[in-house]
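pinned: reference chain
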Amino acid sequence: MTVKLPSPASPLKIGTRGSPLALAQAYETRGRLSQASDLSEDCFDVVIIKVTGDAIQDRPLKDIGGKGLFTREIEEDLLSGKIDIAVHSMKDMPTVQPEGLVLDTYLPREDVRDAFVSPNLSSIEDLAAGAVVGTSSLRRKAQLLNRRPDLQVVEFRGNVQTRLKKLSDGVAECTFLASAGLNRLHMSDVPATPIEPSEMLPAVAQGAIGIERRQADENTAELLAAIHHIETGQRLAAERSFLLTLDGSCETPIAGLAELQDDRLRLRGEVLRPDGSRAICGTRMGPISDGPAMGKELAEELLSRAGSGFFDWHGA
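pinned: its structure tokens
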């Protein structure tokens, strides 16, 4: 097909949340599209969309609806034609898209690691008994309490800047941020120490940017194909299959990471009780093309080992 290219008079509209990190991801997408199509950035218009997840920051996500809170309004605008594509942090994305939308373009993945952030300390081991830690992630909370049940965890919602402000105000001794976000925001001055996945397995799809489009929009599909990173797509296919089989949400502490080694894929997964009292881990290795099947199999294995009631919520 002949691809109709966007122009300054009729730009391709890129929908995004309004946080500094979301905007950095949208601008990266715009830059890659501009370079791949040999068009000026004026041909791509970044459109900020207010989402419920950003508007309500005084309550845990599990209390107000989960992951869809960061995508619902954006996807509504995409379906209505107000925007042409949507840029998302993939770890925020539900595993099933609304009818009429497809998510099949990924940018090269950034650092997948969590970072330990503290003005005075450099690791979890440095925390004194009973120290206060701030995080809004059930996964990080469960992983932390699994290692250090003596610690106190307080809610720490908001964008990167908001959480760093809470830290400087002394609300907590430390917090955790995604290394990818710090890198994309060029925040090398933040006192952050990366945590290896062997110590804290990251969230499924952490560090990855996904681009969503209307399924019937073949013209946009052609434009996006030029910036799709195949290896990231292969890794996320395994991780998101794992998450889908577990029916993962913001109410479920789940971690997963797929890595490519030559023509093989290694998938590690972990499920935890919400209070951190128990963690179950597993690994699969196989051909890259078997990634989705491995994700499903690993999830089924962990669910079988966990038994009924494993994810029951105990505590606020």
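why pinned: The CA atoms of residues 147 and 209 lie 30 Å apart. The domain at 240-305 is CATH 3.30.160.40 (Double Stranded RNA Binding Domain).
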